[in-house]
Amino acid sequence: MKARQKRLVFVGLALVGVAGATSLALSALQSNISYFFSPTQVMANEHPVDAVFRVGGIVVEDTLERQSDGLTVHFDVTDNAAVVPVSYNGILPDLFSEGQGVVAKGRIGADGTFYAEEVLAKHDESYMPPEVADTLQTAHVDGVVEQTAGSLAPTSTTRSPTQ
Amino acid sequence: MIPELGHIALILALLLATAQAVFPLAGSLTGNRPWMTMARPLAYGQLVFVAIAFLALVEAFLTSDFSVHYVAVNSNSLLPDIYKFSAVWGGHEGSLLLWALMMAGWGAAVAVFSRYLPLPVVARVLGVMGLVAIGFLLFMLLTSNPFERLFPVPPEGRDLNPLLQDPGLAIHPPMLYMGYVGFSVAFAFAIAALIGGKLDAAWARWSRPWTTVAWVFLTIGIALGSWWAYYELGWGGWWFWDPVENASLMPWLVGTALIHSLAVTEKRAAFKSWTVLLAISAFSLSLLGTFLVRSGVLTSVHAFATDPERGLFILLFLCVVIGGSLALYAWRAPDVSEGGRFDLVSRESALMLNNLIFVAFTVLVLFGTLAPLIYEAFNLGKISVGFPWFNKMFVALAPFLALLLGIGPAARWKHDSPWRLTKMLWLAFALSIVLLALSSRESISGGDFWVPIGIALAGWLLFSHLTIVRDRLKHKKQPLWQALKADFSGNGRSFYGMVVAHLGVAMFIVGVTMVSNHQIEKDLRMSPGDSHEMAGYRFEFLGAQKVNGPNYRADRGHFRVYRGDRQIAELYPEKRSYLGGGMPMTEAAIDAGFFRDVYVSLGEAVGGGDWALRLYYKPYVRWIWLGAVLMALGGTIAVSDRRYRSASVRSSAPAAAATAPA
């Protein structure tokens, strides 16, 4: 009987711990996830108004502008169907460039500009973030899809070795 | 010609691995001794042929043989020789070959160091390792042959990803793989024990040093990766909760739980089925990590160009390994006798809580990593889980783990009294409270309450472990220092290994706490001649110049860093552009110190000699990696314990052999 009670205590403790951890984890998750939207969805106002989300696509050629402080940049992101203007204050990643895929995380301002807190460019020349690739495919612009497919072809890949 | 030899060697290695999986296992089940004795030679043979294949690939890289597709994609004739060599594992195919080489190496090591194990056990362990090797060699030959030729032969290679042209990254993957693959040994021991139906203390003792060694490699591998990301990516962070990082952390977390639960199984013959389950999980998570990384189902900043066919193969392999071993577990585990009983207050309880917390960590990381997939599968949208979530989860659980860590090693096996523990540890606890009060002052805590908590917990680990060491030596007649030396060179290795590893945890906690709460990061624009003051350091920018490297061109900035009036460092951060792919890269300049790093990385030129750049002040950041080094050192010391050395195992081996089913 005594051993059994002990086991019950252990099991009870474990259950309480698991239940507590799960509820804590799930509630915290809600405030820490960010959804991905394509420029088309943003233009259609499907995005959340007062929450952080991510937008991704291709940086439109000749739209990168740098303000005189040297740190604030503006550029347009497109999925070939719609365009979202993005503003970012900080240092852009090494592989950021016009005509390439990018994912920005931030909020949309009242002026319709997306204020990014974080900009992720691909980390590898031949890599396209899957969301961006999807976005481009759903936008049905053949030229770009071909170009994307070309850059994903295994003949032209470099890979990171981590694991 | 040589690449073809490598290819043939791989095929032969696959045949040997198949033989290694079939005959010894079949022999151990039917009692066919000659078949069982084939295990060792086959393991050596597999190593020889995989090594030949590996050397063939090394040769192709060193001679810049661009007719081999993999070489053409990952190397360049301008690449310095050392990176030509490390480029062998710079891509997918080569890293698989390295993986296979290590797998075969571990197998051969088991064959060498298992002379005192009963033959059926050796046969089963090597047989299971042969099965795993089949999976990897098939994977390589079917989907990722590193020796594939390219026609027409390009005049020049595409170059190794510049991020990988770094000494830290040359050794990071081998270390990491040693860890991953090392868990296959723990896995093989567990499966062998399940097949044999004999899970006992002897099994745990055989499996323990292997598991610890694998864990040591994985610890170093992860720490190196973190260190590399810190200085090479120029983002100034040491952990990003990226799927690829998480993939390596999960096996580490389960592996940590495993080495603790193995201790209980060895000493008290308890937790047996649980230990087996952990051994299966640790290796399965290594495979899952490979799947996640290679299949491209998750977005990662590590950004892999991936191939769905490969993902599918690994997924199938994963299903076979996990499904097969869990089925075996379900079939065999109910027969496992219950181990030694223990009371609520005992070391077993503490280790059980340790295991619960580590498993909880693993589940959280797994969930956070897979959440984007789960959301997408249920059509809830495309999400990413922000790193604050992971941080929150770990910070919520870690203090309990740290508190427990000070008590567990002090508790006795089976039964202890709370009163005895209180009497023993009250001083350590009181000192930690004093530390808490001292570090709550504004000048240290900076107003953040996590800082004093982190410092006090680290102090608690230090004080309690000192108490525990003292307590262990209190009956010795010699002076403390001599007693310590005698005990260390006597039977105390695994105890002192544990102490060192736990102090590594304390150091890690200090590093994480300080750097997370006190680091300063500043993006700014500077003109030549400008100065910027930050955290008591003055950064003077003297301008940037063009320089040429062996295979890149760079802008090199020149900074002087002053503390007060004294110049403490000159820093030369670079912005490189590699000739091979034209890929730009930031090379940060760091003045490293035991108590702080100052760190400059160049952003981009913004005209008129001005640069957008980033300055960092990172207090105690080195303690994070030094903590990991201490943990690994502790593991190494523990493995050198006398009872794992063959001579002492010999005494128990005949008894075990006699009872093992023939």
The total beta strand count of chain A reads 7
Any idea what the shape of chain B is?
Answer: globular
Q: Name the overall outline of chain A.
A: elongated
Could you tell me the strand content of chain A as a percent range? 25-35%
CATH homologous superfamily placement of the largest domain in chain A: Nucleic acid-binding proteins
Q: Care to count the β-strands of chain B?
A: 11
Q: Which CATH class of the largest domain in chain A?
A: Mainly Beta
Q: Which blocks of ≥5 consecutive residues of chain B have pLDDT under 50?
A: 647-662
Radius of gyration of chain A: 22 Å
Structural class of chain A: alpha+beta
CATH topology name of the largest domain in chain A, in short, is: OB fold (Dihydrolipoamide Acetyltransferase, E2P)
Chain-averaged pLDDT of chain B? 88
Helices and strands of chain A, in order, run as: HEHEEEEEEHH
Helix content of chain B: 55-70%
Protein name (chain A): Cytochrome c-type biogenesis protein CcmE
Cytoplasmic side (chain A): 1-7
Membrane topology (chain A): Single-pass type II membrane protein
Organism (chain A): Halochromatium glycolicum
Give an overview in words.
The complex is a heterodimer of chains A (163) and B (662). By secondary structure, chain A is α+β, with helices and mostly antiparallel strands. Helices cover 33% and strands 27% of the residues of chain A. Chain A has two domains: 1-33; 35-154, OB fold (Dihydrolipoamide Acetyltransferase, E2P) (Beta Barrel), CATH 2.40.50.140. Chain A is built from four helices and seven strands; from the N terminus they run αβαββββββαα. A five-stranded mixed barrel of chain A has the order 2-4-5-7-6. The relative contact order of chain A is 0.13. Among the domains of chain B are: 1-165, no CATH class; 523-622, no CATH class. Chain B is 64% helix and 12% strand. Chain B has 21 helices and eleven strands. Chain B has helices at 2-30, 33-37, 39-62, 69-74, 81-86, 92-113, 119-143, 167-196, 201-232, 243-268, 272-295, 308-332, 347-377, 387-407, 418-439, 442-445, 450-473, 480-489, 493-518, 621-639, 646-659; strands at 383-385, 520-526, 531-534, 537-548, 552-563, 566-571, 574-578, 584-587, 589-591, 596-607, 610-619. Chains A and B meet through α1 and β1 of A and α6, α8, α10, α11 and α13 of B. β1 (33-37) of chain A pairs antiparallel with β1 of chain B, so a sheet runs across the interface. Chain B: It comes from Halochromatium glycolicum. Chain B: Required for the biogenesis of c-type cytochromes. Possible subunit of a heme lyase. Chain B: Residues 89-295 form the Cytochrome c assembly protein domain. Chain B: Keywords: Cell inner membrane, Cell membrane, Cytochrome c-type biogenesis, Lyase, Membrane, Transmembrane, Transmembrane helix.
